[in-house]
Amino acid sequence: MRYLVTGGAGFIGSNFIRHIFNKYGSDAQVVNLDKLTYAGIRENLAEYEGKKNYRFLHGDIAKQEDVAEAYKGVDGTGVDVVVNFAAETHVDRSLMEAGTFIETDVHGVLVLLEEARKHAPKLRRFVQISTDEVYGSIETGSFVEGDPLNPRNPYSASKAGGDRMAYAYAQTYDLPVIVTRASNNFGPFQYPEKLIPLFVTNAIDNQPLPLYGDGKNIRDWLFVDDHCAAIDFLIGKGENSETYNIGGGNERENREITFKILEILGKPESLIKRVADRVGHDRRYSLDSEKLAALGFRCDTNFDQALERTVRWYADNEPWWRAIKERSAEYKAYYDKQYGAK
Ligand code: NAD
Ligand code: DAU
User: Looking at residue 337, what is its pLDDT?
Assistant: First the structure.
């Protein structure tokens, strides 16, 4: 299979490309189109550089000429499957500046879809990676795919725009689109601005763990390997024009996650610093993943073991995250001002 993966230098995209090469070896060809924003780290896939079935293309999904080049594939023969991970992804950054979110998460999707139309007869799948955040917050119960969308922050609103644009192109132009909405991922190579890698790396350095509000917001944690396996499964078994929830089945309060991280690292709870709440902070995300299960896929990773493995990965890969943290000074200044410790 010939894949065009966008955003493959980021967290989930790089894990997905590794998953594909581990599973299909030289039967897979992958073009990785990535803008290398602050979150894009080409070295995440250093082991594939120079291989004849992998091509890294530095470019922007919102630029037609970059996208046209990417659709040529590794060797100029084209691609069978597009998986669009490329996005601005951090909620707190969308509160600082939302314009780039619209540019990439909405307009970028449109550019990819327009190019897909030109390749339509040969294209087998276009997977738009959306998120559970498009449904908004839910106090009890879980969202199913047909529920109305109610995004409540600039990031999730931009993702909802891309999500519905992909669906609209499936309906209007008969493109082989599927949309996936996953819950909070965790695992190796996650940028250390997100809860788990931020708290793990701060704790290693005996720095405060800034827990927003009362720490009781709930997220449903999905190990990144399970997410990658689910996407691969849906490329084969999903139905065009359909949307699929991918939940981890591991709902936890943020404070539980925080305690676990400290326990694994053997660090004191005094590192926890209660700070101001995120504005418009969604209380709880919860997905019903029965539609995916009915096709035959269930996430099978044990949460506690996966969290421990993840914490160990950061402990064992200090040069990776230290370099990132050192070059994130501008965002850190904004973050520290926004979430000054109480
Ligand atoms: P990430 O921030 O780690 O990586 C994003 C990647 O996209 C980076 O490599 C970046 O350079 C690239 N990129 C950004 N703008 C681009 C553009 N205009 N053109 C090309 N490349 C561009 O993100 P992630 O956490 O790996 O998320 C990947 C996808 O999964 C996103 O679409 C996100 O909305 C979705 N998602 C993430 C989660 C999660 O918990 N992380 C959960 C559900 C869905
Ligand atoms: O639900 C899927 C979404 O999960 C993805 O679509 C997003 O791309 C991804 O960033 C993530 O969004 P969240 O806002 O849920 O993730 P984040 O890691 O930023 O925060 C998780 C929870 O932890 C949230 O309730 C806010 C809280 N938090 C976060 C940070 C960074 C803190 O309490 N302190 C922090 O410093």
Answer: 86
Indicate which ligand has the atom closest to the C-alpha of 10.
Answer: 1
Q: Which residues line ligand 2 (CB under 6 A)?
A: 89-91, 131-133, 183-184, 194-195, 198, 210-212, 217, 219, 254, 278, 285
Instruction: In whole angstroms, give the CA distance from residue 245 to residue 293.
Output: 10
Closest CA to 137 of 13, 242, 278: 278
238-268 pLDDT, tens digit each: 999 999 999 999 999 999 999 999 999 999 9
Distance (Å, rounded) from C-alpha 290 to C-alpha 276?
36
pLDDT at 332: 85
* CATH 3.40.50.720, domain 2-186+221-246, yes or no: yes
Mean pLDDT of the region 27-46: 98
Instruction: State the distance from the centre of ligand 1 to the C-alpha of 7, rounded, in angstroms.
Output: 6
* Ligand found nearest the CA of 179: 1
What are the φ and ψ backbone dihedral angles of 221, each rounded to 5 degrees? -85, 130
Residue 252 alpha carbon to ligand 2 centre in Å: 12
Q: Looking at the domain covering 195-218+251-282+304-333, what would its CATH class be?
A: alpha beta
